[in-house]
């Protein structure tokens, strides 16, 4: 049985404005109706695969479970990192946890934000590497290159190893992201592959490798796992111990030093969607090189990508050449396709300006559903709130604002101080400033309401929680 380990803690700034710190690219439907995370989980499920181990941050824990359950996949073990420490600590923590369950287990470590168009071919490649992993090898998967890519790390095969082979081949070394001339030379050499960052090994093999090459990571990682606490269906790694672990990639900590490495060449299609130019390629441009998504229209355009990610925004391009245009409700990106890798500079510039669009997604996902701001004024705010069937917001009050709720779909069970009532479509309820209140969805369909807030301060931190089914921090009720 292979245990998939899905890493999903990255921020994906090169795909701004769709990918942001509060809702990174792995959870977005960039290619097709499913998110990249969902596609990764489905690709590594079924016969021969155990329930996935997911390593993520606290802000994404409920998104992970919600998206897995949408696919009918058992969430399995979900490890919560107190803070991002790069991939080596994440892999090590997963290995230490699996060692308690099955010390002989095979781990397949994969980022959750990659596109693999042929899942069956990828599973077949994994199977070709199984015997080597069971024999104590660290198996990685190298992508047969199609062009001189400078945005990826590369893998150099042994001179006698054929790139066209299907089975595990000897790996000479890892190569950092090259400049253009070096990338062209490696492409021409015929003995280099792209580094996909996907690994297959046994728990015992990787723990021995950490002990040999990155022993300083083991004591704090063990302490973080041993002192971890169960929180609902999640396992929270101990923050104090976790903070002592060096932030380092698994490539640097282990792989670049290990002498038991093999690589399985893979050529059935792959992309890490490291920029909007990669998204353009994966979307399958038409004969004019144009790809569109959502309410986007291209007139006399060439080699361009137009995406509207906002329900009420029509994006129209006329006479565009080599342009990427992405429209969101709160931000629009327009960039020359050749500068796609520089989108992260826009994020840095917006952060320097203090603009919330730099990191905050317009739709705020919560364990009970999501909300988005429709209108924000000096002393009022209008939101759309969607509550999942059976879900409930916390029992709470506000110091600085009152609220008016209008149900537009479904039925809400509303508590305001000592009064509990059902509020159906086209009905409303007023929540005075300071009132202790709660909203629940007792039905079987999503409940949608419009919330109008009024007050001198409308920030999300103006919440006093008295009880919460999702174990978020509360204060004693008075």
Would you write up a description of this structure?
Helix content is 23%, strand content 32%. The protein is of the alpha/beta class. It folds into 3 domains: 265 residues, Spore Coat Polysaccharide Biosynthesis Protein SpsA, Chain A (Alpha-Beta Complex); 78 residues, no CATH class; 101 residues, Jelly Rolls. Helix 3 packs across helix 6 and helix 3 packs across helix 7. The relative contact order is 0.11. The model has no long low-confidence stretch (mean pLDDT 93).
Describe this protein with a few key phrases.
single chain, 478 residues, alpha/beta, Spore Coat Polysaccharide Biosynthesis Protein SpsA, Chain A, Jelly Rolls, 3 domains, 6-stranded antiparallel beta sheet, 5-stranded mixed β-barrel, 28 strands, 23% helix
**Number of discrete helical segments:** 11
Indicate the multimeric state.
single chain
Helix content: 10-25%
Number of strands: 28
CATH homology-level superfamily of the largest domain: Spore Coat Polysaccharide Biosynthesis Protein SpsA, Chain A
- CATH level 3 topology of the largest domain: Spore Coat Polysaccharide Biosynthesis Protein SpsA, Chain A
